[in-house]
Write a structure and sequence with these properties.
Helix content: 40-55%
Low-confidence stretches: none
Number of domains: 2
Number of strands: 13
Oligomer: single chain
Strand content: 5-15%
Distance between the termini: 49 Å
Radius of gyration: 24 Å
Length: 499
């Protein structure tokens, strides 16, 4: 009788997903803070007056919004201290290692490698240095130094953690990207394989491939066995044939932001955005790719969205309800509400090329007869008056310019019928904007692409109250959160709000 397969370790899966998605955002914040000289403009905690965000932005020569996008993750990580109502300072542990000249020299060297790291796939294929910026870069040598050589001495455990996040985290992300691009992970799913055989199969230099495998081994993903290189037990459970394709889909999206993140300090100081999503053509390309990626995981997201529909249904009936899904993406949120009641009608609003990804899902779910596809720009269309019982905003607020939000919410509120609900899904920051970390990293991406912001519940209430949506609460969902707002004319469900 076969033994049951153990479930993957949640901690290992979380770490793996962090290295695939958010490690580059974290490293970019640390490196930008270093390049901006941000740490040098803060007093040690308890030894001087904390510095306000406005003053800090002036000192680093950056915008208020850009400086905030960099410093907020540092607060959540504990490298910067925030005193409510006063400002920022440096904990004694941070200040100590940032006074160490050898440590600072190591950070300066690590920062030089951000852009050459992106050429790791080329280096592994060729087996030697690669060209970038008119110079030759020994990327493989840098990986040997980071992962295969004894770790350099650091002034403290806190300094070691800082350096790991600053230098090794972006290299870990590129190791995963390269392993996926060269089909190394796909080959290892089938079982252990010798180095020479694997090199032939993926078209790489054996010596260079061994460096890549060494970095993956340091991450706990692969190990050398008698039969050859294979997954560790933890990686084998987390990256099986079913889950590996889902995991690898996140990597191209991460790389789409790589250059922009490497110029984060430039964006803060000069407001020059290397991936400007306010440019129509750039936005069309990125959002079309995103819609395609989300469509590939439509089924799993539909299960989660249906939980939100159940929450709304506990507040008001959905029979004969008219639902508007603004910025629908793959259509997964509107579809969840369409499935919640056989008489619900859903309108899906997005750009024409995104709506093309919605049609197949509606056909498969047999929702076409109760659906309308509305091609338009959410910031310019006329929503009308008292047309909808429920309006959905599926993760689109961070894509909208903050200056547009007051009028946007006013037009949505006008379009809600009495007893209507506005549901906003996505990340929700704490009231102090000091977490959760994944939400702050998402906010950093929005800044570096010249988009909108991630908000806290008080910030949402400040926008919604003036347009008549005076009652708003946040609720935890399995992956992210939802904010539900109304005019005070709907009873809240017997579910504990998140805030």
């Amino acid at each position: 009788m076969s033994q049951p397969v153990s479930a993957p370790s949640p901690a290992f899966v979380q770490q793996l997903n962090f290295h695939a998605r958010d490690a580059s955002n974290e490293a970019a914040a640390l490196q930008a803070a270093f390049a901006l000289g941000l740490f040098g403009h803060l007093p040690e905690t308890g030894s001087g007056e904390p510095v306000s965000l406005e003053v800090l932005a002036k000192r680093v020569g950056g915008t208020w919004r850009g400086t905030r996008s960099v410093v907020e993750p540092l607060v959540a990580l504990g490298f910067v201290h925030l005193e409510e109502g006063r400002g920022y300072s440096l904990p004694a542990s941070t200040a100590a290692f940032l006074r160490d000249e050898a440590f600072i020299a190591g950070l300066r060297e690590a920062r030089r490698w951000w852009h050459p790291l992106a050429l790791l796939p080329q280096a592994v294929r060729a087996g030697g240095p690669v060209a970038w910026g008119g110079a030759s870069w020994d990327v493989l040598g840098w990986y040997r130094a980071l992962f295969l050589s004894p770790a350099p001495s650091t002034p403290s455990a806190e300094a070691r953690d800082f350096h790991d996040r600053f230098a090794r985290n972006p290299a870990r992300t590129l190791a995963l990207v390269t392993a996926a691009e060269l089909d190394v992970l796909v080959k290892l799913v089938r079982g252990p394989v010798t180095l020479d055989a694997l090199a032939r199969e993926v078209g790489a230099s054996a010596e260079a491939l061994e460096v890549l495998l060494g970095a993956l081994a340091a991450m706990g993903i692969v190990q050398a066995r008698e039969a050859g290189w294979g997954f560790t037990e933890a990686a084998g459970r987390a990256l099986d044939a079913q889950s590996l394709p889902y995991f690898q889909r996140a990597l191209p999206a991460t790389m789409a932001y790589w250059e922009a993140l490497g110029h984060l300090d430039e964006a803060v100081r000069e407001q020059r955005f290397r991936l400007d999503l306010r440019d129509p053509e750039t936005a069309r390309r990125i959002y079309q790719e995103n819609a395609s990626r989300i469509s590939s995981i439509f089924a799993s997201h539909l299960r989660l969205s249906r939980q939100a529909a159940t929450l709304v249904k506990s507040m008001r009936p959905l029979a004969q309800a008219r639902v508007l899904d603004v910025g629908t993406g793959s259509g997964v949120w509107g579809a969840a509400f369409g499935l919640a009641d056989p008489t619900t009608h859903v309108t899906y609003l997005d750009s024409p090329h995104v709506l093309d990804a919605v049609r197949p899902h509606l056909a498969k779910l047999k929702l076409e007869a109760r659906s309308e596809l509305w091609a338009g720009d959410c910031l310019s269309v006329d929503y009308g008056e008292s047309r909808y019982d429920v309006i959905l905003l599926p993760q689109i607020i961070p894509a909208l310019p903050p200056s547009e939000l007051p009028s946007f919410f006013a037009r949505l509120a006008r379009a809600l019928r009495p007893g209507g609900l506005l549901l906003i899904s996505g990340y929700l920051l704490t009231d102090r904007r000091d977490g959760p970390l994944d939400a702050l990293y998402f906010a950093l991406r929005r800044y570096v692409t010249n988009e909108g912001d991630v908000l806290s519940l008080p910030e949402f209430r400040a926008l919604l109250g003036p347009v008549g949506l005076t009652d708003a609460r946040g609720f935890d969902m399995p992956i992210q959160q939802v904010v539900i707002a109304h005019r005070g004319d709907v009873a809240w469900p017997d579910v504990a709000p998140s805030a």
